[in-house]
Write a structure and sequence with these properties.
The complex is a heterodimer of chains A (187) and B (250). Chain A is an all-alpha fold and 187 residues long. Chain A is built from seven helices and no strands. In chain A, helix 2 runs antiparallel to helix 3. The radius of gyration of chain A is 17 Å and the shape is globular. The termini of chain A are close together. Classes of the chains: A mainly alpha (187), B mainly alpha (250). At the A-B interface, helix 1, helix 2, helix 3, helix 6 and helix 7 of A face helix 3, helix 4, helix 6, helix 7 and helix 8 of B.
Chain lengths: 187, 250
């Protein structure tokens, strides 16, 4: 057990939850609950990044609303993809970070749509429902409406999250990105 | 832990009893049962929880959680969704099949939230501590969960403080959408930096107290359920059995 990684993972999961609540307080049409997951992918091994993402969903289920854990798969996907992007050095320039955000948005929208349609009848807790409803009223079927609505919101959210992650990582001392490495990490 | 517990005046439910209530609520929600069966299961499990709790906190929290999803469900499927046909008898475009679909889904969501609400409303610090110190959960999981919950509160306070400080400096964090997005880094970057510093301080403090070198808390064995709770568990089994039997019989 690497205590530093564990505490950092817990802190970044808490950051996701706190930013999610701030976004709701400011009435922003974005979630901001993946910034911690993306930063975790940059600073820690893959399993800890996944722990941050999935942990965020599970804890939001306890603290905010029990529907959040159903989107744990979404967070898993985001953590994994962000980790892959980091390994390909995609967080070294703002435009690369924005590109990562667009890819993450596409993946997140595709992963979230089946959960939203099959479990919640196309309704979510965020403002996406309003967009879905408008698209359905325009004659689209529920799958197309949910996928399009999710894609619109996720594009804003994930690109913003990746750009903010890039700004933060750009300002951090370089040694801090690998700081938690200790002897037991090698095991 | 005060923000996730403590609406009820009743004595604690043990984690085992909470688990039984959760299973009893989730079984009917997971089968394709009729609305009558779902409604009956919701009321039966809810009433038993209310009797045991000596209050209606479970019902109340379940409603608070389910309502934000239930209302849009009725609007979207009962009025908007073109996948369901409208009734020719009514002047307003109500879709009866959509209303039925929304009602079924709402009841399933209500049952699900009821099963989870038991954990939030009738467990107190002692029960949560008992779950942690029972040794059933792996230590890394306990560390992550407890630290996350504690830090979430801290970071929320920090976010509010940063928000006020940035507003005082003239950064328009509450103006129109475009300005909100532009001013996001002014809020988020200090929060992330604060989080990383806090994580470093906490990790050092916990390592110095022995975390990472073996279990740091004593384990204890949960006592068996009292007789009244055993009766309650039997009643919950009967409710689930009835729901499954009605479903099987069509």
């Amino acid at each position: 057990m690497n205590t530093r990684y564990l505490i950092l993972a817990a802190s970044l999961a808490a950051l996701n939850l706190a930013l999610g609540k701030v976004a709701a307080t400011l009435s922003l049409p974005v979630y901001l609950d993946t910034i911690g997951t993306i930063i975790a992918a940059v600073m820690m091994p893959w399993r800890y990044a996944v722990c941050v993402g999935v942990g965020t969903s599970l804890l939001a289920g306890i603290i905010i609303n029990p529907v959040y854990p159903f989107y744990a798969g979404n967070q898993f996907l985001i953590a994994t993809l962000a980790y892959v992007f980091v390994r390909f050095r995609m967080f070294t320039a703002w435009w690369k970070a924005a590109l990562c955000g667009a890819c993450l948005a596409l993946a997140a929208a595709i992963a979230a749509a089946p959960v939203t349609v099959l479990l919640f009848g196309g309704v979510t807790l965020s403002g996406t429902t309003a967009i879905n409803a408008v698209l359905m009223a325009a004659g689209n079927n529920i799958w197309k409406a949910v996928l399009t609505g999710s894609l619109v919101i996720e594009s804003i959210d994930k690109i913003a999250a990746c750009l903010i992650a890039w700004i933060v990582l750009d300002r951090l001392p370089k040694e801090m990105l690998n700081a938690p490495k200790t002897a037991d990490d090698a095991t | 832990m005060s923000h996730i517990v403590g609406l009820s005046r009743a004595e604690d439910f043990s984690p085992k009893l909470c688990l039984c209530f959760t299973v009893a609520a989730l079984v009917p929600a997971c089968i394709p049962a009729s609305t009558a069966v779902l409604m009956g299961a919701y009321l039966a499990v809810g009433v038993l929880a209310a009797v045991r709790e000596q209050g209606i906190s479970v019902f109340r929290l379940s409603a608070v959680w389910a309502a934000p999803l239930a209302i849009p469900l009725f609007v979207v499927h009962g009025v908007i969704n073109p996948g369901f046909s409208t009734s020719a008898d009514l002047s307003i475009p109500i879709r009866p099949e959509g209303v039925e679909f929304a009602l079924t889904l709402t009841l399933k969501l209500a049952l699900f939230t009821l099963g989870i609400a038991v954990w939030r409303t009738v467990t107190r610090d002692r029960t949560f501590d008992a779950l942690i110190s029972s040794g059933l959960l792996p230590q890394p999981l306990v560390v992550v969960v407890t630290q996350s919950i504690a830090l979430t509160q801290l970071l929320e306070k920090r976010a509010k403080a940063i928000l006020l400080a940035q507003q005082a400096r003239g950064i328009p964090v509450r103006k129109n959408f475009a300005r909100k997005v532009v001013s996001l880094p002014a809020l988020v970057v200090p929060m992330v930096v604060h989080t990383l510093i806090e994580a470093d301080v906490r990790a050092s403090a916990l390592i110095s107290r022995g975390l990472g070198s073996g279990p740091i808390y004593p384990t204890r064995i949960e006592p068996p359920l009292p007789l009244k709770d055993q009766v309650l568990v039997c009643m919950l089994v009967v409710i689930d059995g009835a729901a499954l039997a009605l479903w099987a019989l069509g």
